[in-house]
C-alpha cells in the first residue's frame, strides 16, 4: 500500500494533462457575471439514452432540441470531465439556436455516467470510434458539427481520421477547443508524462486498482498546489470552482491513469487534411498551461478554413471560464455551416 500511494504522488503531478478540473490559479481579475446565478447542480436535458459502443461499453447520451432539427451539434468533453462541463453551452446556445439545432452531449467512456473500460480500451482511436457510434445511434442523418475540448478534441480528430467518408458526407463543421493534434507530451504540463514514475504507477493501477482508489485522497492532497495552476486563468466564483473540482473528484483513479499513455502517444495529424475543406474553429486561452496557446495556433495554421480565437487570460477550462466568448465563436461556426460559407472572416480573433 505505501509503495502504491507513493507512486500516486508521482502520478498526481501529471494528472492535469488534458483538462482536469481541480487545476486552478487565482491570479487574474474575475470575469464579471460569469456565473449569472448558475445552478450547476441542475443541468436539464430534453432526452437521455444509453448508446452501446461497438465494443459494448455503454455511453450515456443527453440531447437538447428536436430530433427533426436540420443540424446536429455533438459536444465531446475532455479528460476527467463529463457532460456537465458544457453547462453554459447547453443553457445559452439552446436559447440562441432554438429548434434549428439539436445538441448532443455524452460522457466519454470511463467518465461520468458511461461505463468503465479495460486498460487496453483506453486510447484515442477508441474514443474516436465512440464519437462515430454516438452519431450513428442518435443522429443517423443530416449534417453534423463536432465540438471537442482537450481530449475531446483529440477524439473528434480521431473520428475524422478513422471515418473520412463521414466527414465528406456528414461532418460540416469542426470546433477544436484547447486541444492539439499531437505533441502533448512535449509541451505544457504534459511534459511530465515522460517519467518512469508514471509507468510504474500505471502498472500498479492495472494490478491493484482497488487499492489505488483507496489512496485517492493522498493523490489529490499531494498534487493540489501544482494542479491549481492551469484550469482557470482568472479568479472564478466559489460555485464554479467547486463545480469544476467535483468533476475531477468523481473520476476514478483507474480512468485517470489508464488514459495517460493514450495522451502521451496521441498523434492525429493525419486527420487534418481530411477536415481541410470543412468549416473549422480553433479556440484556446492564452493562459492555458495544459495545452499552451501556441499548439492551437499551429493547429489553425494547418487548417485553411479555420477561425482562430485567442481568449485573453483564459486557462484550460475556457468553456466554463469565458462562456460568452466560446458561445459566440461556436455560434459563428454554426452560422457558417448553415449558410454554406466555409471560410472564416477574419481568420484570427482575440477576445476576452
From TrEMBL:
Coiled coil: none annotated. The keyword Iron does not apply. InterPro entries: AB_hydrolase, AB_hydrolase_1, AB_hydrolase_fold. Keywords: Hydrolase. One of its GO terms (molecular function) is hydrolase activity. Residues 73-329 form the AB hydrolase-1 domain. It comes from the Bacteria. This is Alpha/beta hydrolase.
